[in-house]
Amino acid sequence: MTRRAPSSPARRPSLEERLAQALQERDAALAALAQERAVVNALRLASARRGEPEPKDYPVAAGPGEAPLRYVLADEANDTLKAFLGPLHRGVKGVLKGRAKKR
Fold first, then answer.
1. Which end of the chain is more exposed for a tag (fewer CB within 10 A), N or C?
2. DSSP readout, the chain?
3. Are both 72 and 101 inside the same structural domain?
4. Pick the residue with more confidence: 31 or 48?
5. Global pTM?
6. 73 with 100, same domain?
7. Alpha-carbon distance 92 to 42, whole Å?
8. In a domain, 92, yes or no
9. 59 lies in a domain?
């Protein structure tokens, strides 16, 4: 693979500046996220020390052999859609198969 020379040297600093700015914005966003996580963890620890129970629906990590919460929710949504749209799906599938056989 050969490298091409930049089309104009004037564009290069502008791209480097935009890249540096994007990296700074990403770093700032990650720092803000880390700070928010630290606050949430501090609040959870403080409530645990006071003896307050964790909410029943608090999304904790799945244990060994358990599906993650997002999988459980996706499966429930999929099952609901299949229950409501199942007959329609079978009908459309039958029509499409019939059209394919005619060709």
1. N
2. -PPPPPS-TTHHHHHHHHHHHHHHHHHHHHHHHHHHHHHHHHHHHHHHHTTPPPPTT--PPP-TTPPPHHHHHHHHHHHHHHHHHHHHHHHHHHHHHHHHHH-
3. yes
4. 31
5. 0.39
6. yes
7. 53
8. yes
9. no
**pLDDT top residue among 9 and 79:** 79
Share of the chain above pLDDT 70, in %: 77
User: Which residues, other chains included, contact 61 with Cβ-Cβ below 8 Å and sequence gap of 6+?
Assistant: 68
How many domains does the chain divide into? 2
Q: How confident is the model at residue 65 (pLDDT cuts 50, 70, 90)?
A: confident
Is there a domain that residue 60 lies in? no
Provide the pLDDT for residue 25. 94
C-alpha torsion sign, points 52, 56, 62, 65: positive
